[in-house]
Amino acid sequence: QVQLVESGGGLVQPGGSLRLSCAASENIFRLYPVKWHRQAPGSQRDWVAYITANGVTNYPDSVKDRFTISRDNAKNTVYLQMNSLKPEDTGVYYCSLDVYGVHYWGQGTQVTVST
């Protein structure tokens, strides 16, 4: 059973930056796609970044040019660099791993963008 652990969340002012980390219990990120998701209070969980096993990335328009997903295979870790943060970026951020249709999730990390 793969374990995923997110970290790096916190309180940041609008316009600030945060880097989230998603660490896996085994060296698996190089083999399967990984997504970051955001769930705001009272809202559904939406994806905000995606990286394939080949390193191809994709983002929804709402975060494009502000968020960057990357992967360090040696550390079994996927990152989400978030810049120019807005209040609407507030939510719990989760990473997920898709292994042939079986999805593994972390416990999430809270990001709050506020003055």
Structural class: mainly beta
Radius of gyration: 13 Å
* N→C terminal distance: 40 Å
H/E element string? EEEEEEEEEEE
- Helical content class: under 10%
Largest β-sheet summary: 7 strands, mixed
Number of helices: 0
Overall body shape: globular
Strand fraction band? over 45%
The protein's oligomeric status is single chain
Count of beta strands = 11
Low-pLDDT stretches: none
> Would you tell me the overall average pLDDT?
96
Which helices and strands occur, and which strands form pairs?
Blueprint: E1 4-7, E2 10-12, E3 18-24, E4 34-39, E5 45-51, E6 57-58, E7 67-72, E8 77-82, E9 91-99, E10 102-105, E11 109-113
Parallel strand pairs: 2-11
Antiparallel strand pairs: 1-3, 3-8, 4-5, 4-9, 5-6, 7-8, 9-10, 9-11
Task: Report on this structure.
- The protein is mostly beta strands.
- Helices cover 0% and strands 51% of the residues.
- It contains no helices and 11 strands.
- It has strands at 4-7, 10-12, 18-24, 34-39, 45-51, 57-58, 67-72, 77-82, 91-99, 102-105, 109-113.
- Strands 2, 4, 5, 6, 9, 10 and 11 form a 7-stranded mixed sheet that branches. The protein has a 4-stranded antiparallel sheet with strand order 1-3-8-7, with no helix packed on it.
- Strand 5 (45-51) and strand 6 (57-58) form a beta hairpin.
